Amino acid sequence: MITPTKGLAPDRCLLAVGAQVLLQLDEPRTVSQAWSRLKSWRADQAHTSPVSFEWFVLALDILFAMGAVELDQDVLVARSTDAAPSER
Amino acid sequence: MLRRLSADDARFKTVDFSPGLNLLVADTTSSSAETDSRNSAGKSSVIELVHFLLGAKSSGSLATNRALRHITFSLTMDWPWQDDPLEVRRRGDSPKVVSLSRDVSGVSADTLFTDDQDVELSVEQWNRVIERDLFGLDGDHPGVSGRALLSFLIRRVSAHGFNEPTRTFSRQPAAEASSNLAYLLGLDWQLVNGYRELNARKATRDQLRKAVNDPVWGRIVGSTADLRGQITLAEAQVERLRAQVAAFQVVPEYERLKERADQVSRRIKQLAQDDVIDQHNLEELQGAVTETTDVEVSYLEPAYRELGVILNDQVRRRFDDVKAFHHSVIRNRRRFLEEEIQELTDRLAARRQQRADLGEDQARLLRELAEGGALEALTALQTALGREEAALGALRHRFDAAQALEASTRQITAKSLELQQAVDLDLQERRQQTDEAILLFSRYAQRLYGEGREAYLAIEAGRTSLNITPRIDADDSRGINNMVIFCFDLTLAVLAHRHERGPDFLIHDSHLYDGVDERQVARALALAAEVTEEEHMQYIVTLNTDTLSTAAQRGFNPEPHIRSPRLTDDDEGGLFGFRFKATGKAKA
């Protein structure tokens, strides 16, 4: 699910989708904007496998868990992981 | 009038004829053995040769005998409307042509100077000329032929011509003989010929009848009852096809339409599949919208803590933080889901519309396809119709044939009654002609047998032919019968010549006098001499010397009438001057 498997296309695994989301976050954007930009980007790149909103949220969750994005006043911001110190 | 019978063979005894009675005499010589007969002297050969020169068929004829075929025979005779006698020549080895010393055919000659030139005619042409000039038959005259007429004036032993007065060969159909006799007697031969035609029709009908009754061949025609049924079926079939052709609408570009209909149905199927997927997604989304409760995930943390080493490297956030993040992200998920639901719903609705449109399209296409057809289909239909119509036509022809066959029995019977009546009426109206013949015949008969004998010539319309019955009342001896033939032939010849329907000669073979009482022989010869002189005719008869001498004893003087040569039955005394082996039917 996170990495591609036999039943999961490489352009649809959560890591790939997460990378695609990161591409949209060159500027801080709202969730809606990120979602709609992802959809249009995927259409432009001819990534036809279905990505639902739920799936997009899961990708965001992973990015957040890895400390790649943060929600700052309801706006998604991409962070360099090196800059963010581990809380553990 | 015949003048001379000769040949280019030196041994042949040239026979000269003159007007009136001509006696050709054959002698018995001392060298004759008991087994010899005078038949080898050549008396009958004279008659055969005259026939041959007057256009008889060559097959089996005496002149085509191997010993004689190289000899050119010739007959010199007077020809109507010609001052000089005409010479006819014909050879056995080229029997298809006759050569004439002068062109009497009347056919326009190729050259202007045909005088004294030999003219070659085919035997058919020669026969036409004989029919025209000797018998006055011009143009078409079915049923009457010069050959048949000549056979009455020159009877042939080889054809059994002396068996019956009214036949010239033994199996001559009565109807055929009577047409020719009617012509010689001056009756309406064309009417009488109707008998011959009816007989021919009857024979044809009998043959057909036989064919129909044959189990195999009968199927070719069949019975009217069977055919009527078959025709009814075939007519129905033709009618059905014709209606189909009439109702047929040719659809242009039929193939393209069909292609399009296929496309539409494929598209409809595709749409239905897409709907199934979208419908499934929609249901899932709707489920997600209504799902509100968050499940307890506290067991996650202790479970993952065990794997802390692994997670520690990569995952920097605590579950709680992720959960908080998640919740804040999906705070508005209902809106997004609604959006997706809306989108799917719209898509489904659009598809429903599209499907409806396509369905309508498909229905229209299918209707067009069902109502009409391509041009090829129409052509095929028309071909089938043509075939059925031809079959029907054939059946109708067979029906007509079968009907004609069934009807013709009645028709022939009716026709023959009709004909009988017509001929009967015609005979009544021709009393003069029949009376002339009857009086002549009875005069001749009474000259032979005296006033006491009843002799008559009955001419009556029969069912199948004109019945001509010459009769001299007597004890049916062979002699009497022969004299009936003599009187009848003399009557025919005289009547035909008087009224320009026949030539001026009559020829009899010595066989006619076999078994005739010597008194009658004498009287017959005297009568012939008298009649030929009166009528300016010629009677040629071959006789044996003993017949002649007994006749002479009865007061007939033959001397003025005997023509050279006198034939004998020696090796060299016969007509041909040598002996040869007779072959085939014809006997020397």
From TrEMBL, chain A:
Question: What domain of life is recorded for the organism?
Answer: Bacteria
Which keywords fit this entry according to its UniProt record?
Plasmid
InterPro entries, alphabetized: ABC-3C_MC6
Q: What is this protein called?
A: Uncharacterized protein
Species annotation? Streptomyces glaucescens
TrEMBL record, chain B:
Looking up InterPro entries in the UniProt record yields: ABC-3C_CTD10 (IPR046919), DUF2326 (IPR018760), P-loop_NTPase (IPR027417)
Coiled-coil intervals in this record? 224-274, 327-361
**Which ranges carry the DUF2326 domain?**
445-580
Gene3D superfamilies, per database record = P-loop containing nucleotide triphosphate hydrolases
Q: What keywords would UniProt list here? A: Coiled coil, Plasmid
Which Pfam families does this entry report, sorted A to Z?
CTD10 (PF20275), DUF2326 (PF10088)
Q: ABC-three component systems C-terminal domain: from which residue to which, for each copy?
A: 280-406
Signal sequence coordinates:
none
Q: What is this protein called?
A: Uncharacterized protein
| Species name | Streptomyces glaucescens
* Source lineage: Bacteria, Bacillati, Actinomycetota, Actinomycetes, Kitasatosporales
